[in-house]
Amino acid sequence: MADKPILYRKRLIPNECIRLDQDEVLFRSDQVLVTRWHTIRPKKDLDHGVSCFLLEKGWKISRFLTRENELICWYCDIMDYTYEAETDTYIFTDLLADVLLYPSGDIRVVDLDEIAEALEQRLLEQRQVCLCMRRLDSLLREIYGGRLIPSLEKYWPH
Questions:
Q1: Using CA atoms, how far apart are residues 158 and 138, in angstroms rounded to an integer?
Q2: FRET label pair with 120: which of 91, 105, 128, 156, CA 20 to 30 Å apart?
Q3: 1 pLDDT exceeds 70?
Q4: Which pLDDT score, from 0 to 100, does residue 40 have?
Q5: What average pLDDT does this structure show over 109-125?
Q6: Contact between residue 146 and residue 113 where contact means Cβ atoms under 8 Å apart
Q7: Cβ-contact 23, 37 below 8 angstroms
Q8: Beta partners for 61?
Q9: Phi, psi of 26, deg, nearest 5
Q10: Which residue stretches of the chain are H helix?
């Protein structure tokens, strides 16, 4: 494995595949990849963050931060990925379902309508939707059990 892998973020809605050239890899193992990044498209509050890709679980857990390093939320993407060892390239495909965890304790599950739309438009196959739902279920079990965020503390830079 090279020091800096090539990373792509693939989205289905909208259809785009973006090379994440500016992301800094902070940690890497066979099961986990941690990156630090700045927003690709400027947002009102969101300035930068840190993402922890839990490869076997199919989750990307990101800390969304303001310019002042204040936590906006933890943004949890359900994803799948492919890895090409020869070129040390990851392509992370967003499977659309997301969970937002706010410092207040509020939890929001979002974009489930996009899964239905993607299935209708044949952007996702049935097996991918099933994979997404199973990964979403296991993520929610970790969240509701209070285990998710504590299990990731070791990966966040201080």
A1: 28
A2: 91
A3: no
A4: 85
A5: 96
A6: no
A7: yes
A8: 52, 76
A9: -95, -30
A10: 112-120, 126-144, 148-152
With tokens 């989205």, the residue in question is 11
Q: Which pair of structure tokens corresponds to residue 30?
A: 């066979």
Question: Considering Cα of 72, then 154, then 143, then 105, what sign does the dihedral take?
Answer: negative
CA distance 65 to 138: 25
DSSP string, 73-103: EEEEEEEEEEEETTTTEEEEEEEEEEEEE-T
CA distances from 128 to 26, 96, 112 (A): 29, 11, 13
Tell me the pairing of strands 89-101 and 6-11: parallel
Q: What is the pLDDT of residue 90?
A: 98
Cα distance between residue 108 and residue 102, in whole Å: 9
pLDDT digits (tens, 9 = 90+) for 21-75: 999 999 999 999 999 999 988 788 999 999 999 999 999 999 999 999 999 999 9
Domains of the chain: 6-155 (2.40.380.10)
Each residue's pLDDT tens digit, 68-111: 999 999 999 999 999 999 999 999 999 999 999 999 999 999 99
Asked whether 69 and 158 are in contact (CB, 8 A), the reply is no
The three state secondary structure string of 6-50 is EEEEEECCCCEEEECCCCEEEEECCCEEEEEEECCCCCCCCCEEE
